[in-house]
Amino acid sequence: MPVRRLPLTAGALCAGLAVAAPPALAEGALHFYNWSDYIAEDTIPNFEEKTGIDVTYDVFDSNEVLEAKLLAGSTGYDLVVPTGIFMERQVKAGIFQPLDKEKIPNLSNLNPQLMEYLATLDPGNEHAAIYMWGTTGMGMNVDMVTERLGADAPLDSLEILFKPEYLEKLSDCGVHILDAPTELLPIALNYLGLDPNSDDRADFQKVEDLLMPIRPYVTKFHSSEYINALANGDICFAIGWSGDVLQAADRAAEADNGVTVDYVIPSEGTLMWFDTLVIPADAPNPDAAHQMINHLLEPEVTASISNYVAYANANDAAKPYMDPDILNDPRIYPSDEVMARLFPDRASSQAVDRMRTRLWNKFKTGI
Asked: Where on the tree of life does the source sit, at the highest rank (predicted)?
C-alpha cells in the first residue's frame, strides 16, 4: 500500500485554521469541508484541471465541530461530509438541500444495498451520497501490547479496553480513545450484551460502571492525533477508525522505524458507519458541489481515494481499479461472518443525547 499523507494541495488548511473562520467566497470557487486524512493527493488537483473550478479544501476531525458550524449557518461551504447519524438529524433540521440527481449520473455506481441502508437515515436518498464507510475498532502497536499483556491476552477482544487489569498495563505506553460518544457508548452497550441503541437509563448506568474504572489509564481523548501517535510509537493502543489505523500502519512501515501497527475489529462486534456527501442549504455554489460529487463517484477517482486512505467505498464500479491489498483486506472489507456482528449507527433522541453527553463528560473528566 502507498504511504498516505494529509493533502496539502488546493488550499488545504490544518484543522484548527479550518475551524477558525468561514472561507472567503469567490466566483467559480468550491469550498469543501471534509475529515482530515480523507482524500487522495491528486483528487482535488484533477477536479480543478477538469472543471476549471478553484477548490478550497478545509478539514475537521469531529462531527461535533462540523455540526456546530452548520447549525450556526452561513458557513460558506458548498460540500460537507457528515457521518450518517449526524446527517440524519441535520436533514430533519433543513440544513441540506436536495440533490439534483440528474447532475450526478455516477450515483448509479453506488451499491443498492448500502444506499438502501442510507435511505433509513435519508428517506428516498434525497440529500446524501455515500463517500466512504468503515468500522470503529482497536489500533495497537503489536510488539508493545504483546510485551505488556503476554501472547495469551485476548488481543481480538474489547476486554483489552474495558477490563482495567489489561488497560492499566498499557497506560505506561499510551492509550488514546476517540472523542466520539456517539460511537464509543454504543460499542460499550454492545460489549455488555445490551442494545447499542438503547434509551434505557439503567443501561447507561451499566456503561458508566464499565467506563469509570478504566479512566485513569486513558492518556488522551482525540479523534485524529492517534494516527501519527501510533505510527511514531508514541502510544501503543487506540480506539479509532479503521482507515486511520491502517494509515498509521502504512506510515510506520514507510518510516521503517521498527513500529508495527495493526487494526483489529473486535470479536464482540462493533459499529459500522457511513460518511456522506451533502450540500448545505445555503451553499454559495451548489452547481460546483454537484460536479464534485459526480467527480468523487467516478470509479477511478473513488478507487484512488480508497487506495490512498484505506477506507471502504460503496462504489461497485470502482472495484476493478482498486488495489487488491485494499479490496481483499478483511479489516477494510469484512467477511460476511464479521459483517453479521457489526451494527449500524442510528440517530438518537434528544433524551439519549443528553444522557450520552453527561456520561461522556463524566468519563472524560474522571469525576
From this structure: Bacteria
